[in-house]
Design brief:
The longest helix has 19 residues. About 40% of the residues are buried. The strands form 7 sheets. Strands 1-28-27-26 form a 4-stranded antiparallel beta sheet, with no helix packed on it. A 4-stranded antiparallel beta sheet has the order 2-3-4-5, with no helix packed on it. The protein has a 4-stranded antiparallel beta sheet with strand order 6-7-8-9, with no helix packed on it. It has 2 domains: about 35 residues, no CATH class; about 300 residues, YVTN repeat-like/Quinoprotein amine dehydrogenase (Methylamine Dehydrogenase, Chain H). It is globular and about 80 Å long. It is mainly beta. About 10% of the residues lie in helices and about 40% in strands.
């Protein structure tokens, strides 16, 4: 038989598997290069391990503010669902739901003695109510637009509130009588919205944040004493250190600035973030700061050196029971004993976790 007469034997097809595997590896390497290996490792760890935190899921809309009671046993959380909810900080039990506002609640604060809560919202009011029963004590109607921030004076006798009407007002917490009304307008007459107000620990001054630098007011007269921060960007949050010597400023400039109050000098600027910083909180010992951002992360870092301590990803990652990614962190609060942090987010949750 001629070789030409032999039947042809089909060659086995060339496997495409090595090319597919190589393509997958290349895509994974590219993904890691874009997103960062640390972020990817964090994602995997979160998804395959149980969350090391407690999640309060009582709200049906974004969480705008969180505040610990002075004794550290309860947390009050405000939300776009129109409620303030008071609950056990360790297990979410004993819920008190305050429904006095007609719209989104944007801010909440405990009185220093822990018996009352003040809350403000888009309905233009600040309401003071019993922290145990929810019974309303006082409604302050001095604002003509949304209220974004409220804070009790350290002695509990006054409340400061700032909002979208361009005013910061200081008023008697018992009677509602206005004591100071500070306002600023743009050149064309539009009001300058105030996003954050914070009392100094001695109760003599008030730090207020809006567009541009933070202003420090004399709490008795409303006179501006100094300015802190850069002229650009929007200030989302401002906080005094526990000893009153420093101011931390979180803004749209993707950073947190720490300023010496007396010398009006920038001590440090923390830049380990690439998005707006919406919330900041000092640890009770004044050594660390927690900052929450629009990327869903909370960074914990040394208040004066910027040394990174910890990144909390509970609001940022997918994991069992949490399927919202990178929901902005709108609020952070340190427990009075310094052992835990509560963070509120646009994922509708408050998460309580150990402060490392």
């Amino acid at each position: 038989m001629s070789i030409l007469d032999k039947p042809l034997v089909d060659r086995p097809p060339r496997s495409r598997r090595p090319f597919i595997i190589a393509a997958i590896i290349l895509l994974l390497l590219l993904f890691c290069a874009i997103t960062g290996v640390g972020n990817d490792v964090g994602f995997v760890v979160h998804f395959v391990s149980a969350p090391a935190h407690f999640t309060y899921s009582g709200h049906s809309n974004y969480v705008s503010a969180v505040a610990w009671s002075p004794d550290g046993r309860r947390i009050a959380s405000a939300s776009g669902d129109g409620t303030v909810q008071v609950w056990n900080a360790s297990n979410g039990g004993n819920v008190l739901i305050y429904r006095g506002h007609r719209s989104d609640v944007s801010t909440v604060a405990w009185s220093p003695d822990g018996t009352k809560i003040a809350s403000g919202g888009l309905d233009t009011t600040v309401q003071v109510w019993n922290a145990s029963t929810g019974a309303r004590i006082l409604t302050y109607r001095g604002h003509s637009d949304a209220v974004f921030s409220v804070a009790w004076s350290p002695d509990g006798t006054r409340i400061a509130s700032g909002g979208n009407d361009g005013t910061v007002q200081i008023w008697n917490a018992a009677s509602g009588k206005t004591l100071v009304n500070y306002s600023v307008k743009y050149a064309k007459g539009a009001p300058l919205a105030w996003n954050s107000v914070a009392w100094s620990p001695d109760g003599k001054t008030l730090a207020i944040g809006s567009n541009g630098p933070v202003a420090l007011l004399d709490a008795a007269t409303g006179k501006v004493l100094n300015y802190y921060g850069s002229p650009g960007g929007t200030v989302h949050d401002v906080a005094f250190s526990p000893d009153g010597q420093y101011l931390a400023i979180g803004s749209s400039q993707d950073s947190v600035q720490v300023w010496n109050v007396a010398t009006v000098k920038n001590v440090y600027t923390y830049t380990n973030t690439t998005t707006d910083v919406y919330a900041i909180a000092w640890s009770p010992d004044g050594k660390r700061i927690a900052s929450g951002s629009s990327d869903g992360l909370v960074e914990v870092w040394d208040a004066f050196t910027g040394d990174h301590v910890y990144t909390y990803r509970g609001h940022a990652d997918f994991y069992p029971g949490h399927f919202t990614q990178n929901a902005s962190v709108n609020a952070v609060a340190w427990s009075p004993d310094g052992t835990h942090i509560a963070s509120g987010s646009s994922d509708n949750t408050v998460q309580v976790w150990q402060a490392l």
